[in-house]
Amino acid sequence: MKNCIIAQSGGPTAAINASLAGVMAAAASMGYDNIYGALNGITGILDKNLIELTDVAKNDPKMLNILKQSPAMYLGSCRFKLPKSEDASDVYEKIFATFEEYDISAFFYIGGNDSMDTVHMLSAYGQKTDKPIRIIGVPKTIDNDLCETDHTPGFGSAAKYVATSILEIAHDAYIYDKKSVTIVEIMGRDAGWLTASSVLARTAYSAAPHLIYLPEMPFSKENFIADVKEQLEKHTQVIIAVSEGVRDAEGNYISASSKSNDAFGHVQLNGTGKTLENLLNNTLDVKVRSIELNVLQRSAEHLSSLTDIDESFALGQHAVKMAEDGITACMAAVKRLSSSPYSVTYASVPVEKVANAVKSVPKEWINARGNDVTDALVEYAAPLIVGETQIPYKNGLPVYADISHLLHK
Amino acid sequence: MKNCIIAQSGGPTAAINASLAGVMAAAASMGYDNIYGALNGITGILDKNLIELTDVAKNDPKMLNILKQSPAMYLGSCRFKLPKSEDASDVYEKIFATFEEYDISAFFYIGGNDSMDTVHMLSAYGQKTDKPIRIIGVPKTIDNDLCETDHTPGFGSAAKYVATSILEIAHDAYIYDKKSVTIVEIMGRDAGWLTASSVLARTAYSAAPHLIYLPEMPFSKENFIADVKEQLEKHTQVIIAVSEGVRDAEGNYISASSKSNDAFGHVQLNGTGKTLENLLNNTLDVKVRSIELNVLQRSAEHLSSLTDIDESFALGQHAVKMAEDGITACMAAVKRLSSSPYSVTYASVPVEKVANAVKSVPKEWINARGNDVTDALVEYAAPLIVGETQIPYKNGLPVYADISHLLHK
C-alpha cells in the first residue's frame, strides 16, 4: 500500500486549497492507493480525525476544480503548537503511530512559518527514530514572509485584493471636493509585503495610496502627521496604506490596545488604523476615516489571482514529486527565473532554513523617508496579481467546496 | 438646440455610473445635441462646473461600457442641501440661469432620498416660474429605502457583496474547532434591507449568518446575549449580521460613540459591531471578533450584480424617454412583474411621493424574535444579486473610468 496524509495549518489564504488540490491530483496520478486529509492540522493526526480524499482526487475533476478555488481551508486549521520531542516524546509517538496504522509513506503539511517548524521537528524525529516516512512542507501565507521561496502561495491573491480594494476606496473618496484622509489598515504583523503591494493600486489618474507605512521601518507619529499635511497640500483626498504591525522606534506597536498572546507567542493586534484616525482627528481639521480590510483580504476567493492559484496548485504537485524522489525534511519552493516576462520554476529547500525565520521587505525597497516603496518592489510584486480565476456562480453566489465535515464532527 | 445636464448625488453605489451611462446612451440616440455632466451634484450647476459627455455618449461605446462598470460616481457628489425656494430664491435663479445659458431642456439627477427632494423642489420652482425644462430623478442607493420603486439601483450589487463576503467570512471562521462569534456590521442607518440580504449567504452546508438584526426592530442587549448563547449550543462558530443602525426600545443607537450631524441632519454612526463585540467579550468565554464591511460594500464594483447593472442602465434610458414624453417632476422606477421567473418593467412615479420618505423592511418579513428574516424576504432579494459583470482587467487590476476631472479642477 502507498498512502499519504495531507493537512493544513495557520491562517487562511485564497490559495491553500489550490495547494491541497495539487497534492491530491499528483498523489492520484503517482499511484497512491489512499489519500487522507487530517482535519484541523496536526491535531487531526493526533486524534485520528481523518477523511478520505481518494475518490475526489481520482474520480472527481469537477470537485477538485471547485476545491482549487475555494477560500480558507478545506481541512481546517489548528492553534496547536507541537512541543519539542525531548519534552513530549509521547506526542511524537502518537503521531507516528497514526502514520503506521494508516500505512503512510508521505505526509504533506501546507502552512506558514509555524507549520514549517512542525515539519522540521517531525522530520528530525522520524530520521532519529529511523522512520521511513517522507515529510514535506508546502508553503502558504498572505504575509509572504517565508524564506527560501521567491514568494508564498496566497500572497498574490491577497495583494490583488488589497490593490483592487484601495483603487475602489479611492474612487469612493474622490467623489467629494472637500479635503479628507482615508487610512486603510492591512494585515502583516512583522513583514510589510502585503501593505507594500498596495502600491499596485496606482493608475495613470490615481496616486492612491499616497503614503505607505511598513513594519520594517520605525513609525514616527510626528513624521506621519507631517507627511499627511504635505500630501493634503497636493491632493484633496489622501489615501494611506498602513500595516497593522507598525511600531515606534522603541519597538512598541502603534496600536497597543490588545496585548494577548496566542499559542505561538504572537501579540494579537487591533486597531492600528483606528489609532491613527484618532491621532489625525486630534491634529487636522479635515474628515478622517479608517478602514480595516480584515479577514476578507485573506479569504476573498472571488478576487483571487490566477497566477497565485496556478502556482499554488503546481507547488502541491511538486511536493508529491519531491516525496517520490525520496526527499524529506524539505519544503516545495518557488524560484523566479525572470520578472519580465514573468517565469518561475519549482524547487526543494531544506525546511530547517525556513522554520521560524521571517523574510522582511528589504530596506532598499523602501524609500528613505519610510513612507513609500521603490520601483524594485513594484517589479517584484506586479506579476503576482496577474490573471483572474473563473469562479462558478449559482444564484449570484460563488460556488465553493462544501465544508460540512468541519462543522459536524 | 436640444441639450441636457446629468448630475449625481448622495453616497456611491456600484450602479450609479451604469445609470449615468444609460442616460448618456439614450440621450445620444434621442437626438440631444449636447450632453453635459455637472460635477459634484447640484453645486456643479450652481458653479457652472460642467464637463462635456457628448463625444463619449455618441462615439465611444468602449468608454461608455467601462463607465457602466465603474465604482462610485464619475461626476462626483456633494453634501449641499438645497434650501427651500421661499428662503433662497437666488439659489434657484442661479440654477435656472445655468439651464438657460446652456439651453437645457432636461435635467437628470441620479441619487437617493435627498436628491429626489432636490428634484421635487426644482420641479416645483420650474413649474411655478413657468420654465419648460423637464426635471427627472433616477434612483440609486444601496439602502434600498426609496418608496414607489420595487428596489433601487445599487442595492443588488451591495447585497451580492454582502452575501458573498458573509460566505467567505464563514469559510474563514469554520477552520477552527473552537467556539467563536463573528459579528459583521453592515451599512443601513434606518432601513435594514442590506443587512437582511445577508440571508442570501446561506448554503446547504452553511447556516451563516446565524442571526440577523435590523434597525426595524428594537434591539435588546439581553435578548442578543441570549440569542448568541442559544446559537453557540448548536454551532461551533456563530456568524452575526447586524445593521449599523440598530437601536434600543427607546430609539437610542446601540453605538452612540459619535453623534455629529451631517448637512441633512443624519446622525453619523460608528462601531455598532465593535460595541457588540465588547458586550459579548464581557459576557461570554469564547473568541469574539467584529468586522465592518465599510465602504467596500458600496464600491466593490468587481463583484457587482449583472441584474443590478443592467437595470440601472435601463432606468437611465427610461428617464430620457420620460423627458421625451414631456414628463417632469417624476422619478424613473422599477416595477416587478414576477419574482419567479424574475421580470421587471420601468415606470414613472411622482417624485413628491419619493422625496424624504423611507421604505423600511416590512415587519412581516422579520421573524417574531427579531433575529432573522422570513422566506418572503429571500424571495424578494434573491433575484437581485443574480449574474456577474465582465469587468476588464489590466495587469491584474480592474479597469475603471479615468476620473482625473474630479481630482484636478
Which helices and strands, and how do they pair?
Two copies of one chain form a homodimer.
Chain A (H helix, E strand, L loop, with lengths): L2 E6 L7 H14 L4 E5 L3 H5 L3 E3 L1 H6 L1 H8 L20 H13 L2 E8 L1 H16 L5 E6 L15 H19 L6 E7 L6 H4 L14 E3 L7 H14 L2 E7 L28 H10 L5 E6 L3 H4 L6 H19 L5 E10 L2 E9 L24 H7 L11 E2 L2 E2 L5 H4 L2
Parallel strand pairs in A: 1-2, 1-4, 4-5, 5-10, 6-8, 6-9, 7-8
Antiparallel strand pairs in A: 2-3, 10-11, 12-13
Notes on the protein architecture:
The structure is a homodimer. With about 400 residues, the first copy, chain A, is an alpha/beta fold. Chain A folds into two domains: about 5-155 and about 300-355, Rossmann fold (3-Layer(aba) Sandwich); about 155-300, Phosphofructokinase domain (Rossmann fold, 3-Layer(aba) Sandwich), CATH 3.40.50.460. Chain A is built from 14 helices and 13 strands. Chain A has a seven-stranded mixed sheet with strand order 3-2-1-4-5-10-11, with helices on both faces. Chain A has a four-stranded parallel sheet with strand order 7-8-6-9, sandwiched between helices. In chain A, a hairpin with a 2-residue loop joins strand 10 (about 330-340) and strand 11 (about 340-350). In chain A, helix 1 packs antiparallel against helix 4 (about 60-70) and helix 1 crosses helix 12 (about 305-325). The longest helix of chain A is centred in the middle third of the chain and has 19 residues, at about 155-175. Chain A is elongated, with a radius of gyration of 22 Å. Residues about 255-270 of chain A have low confidence and may be disordered. Chains A and B meet through helix 7, helix 11, strand 13 and helix 14 of A and helix 7, helix 11, strand 13 and helix 14 of B.
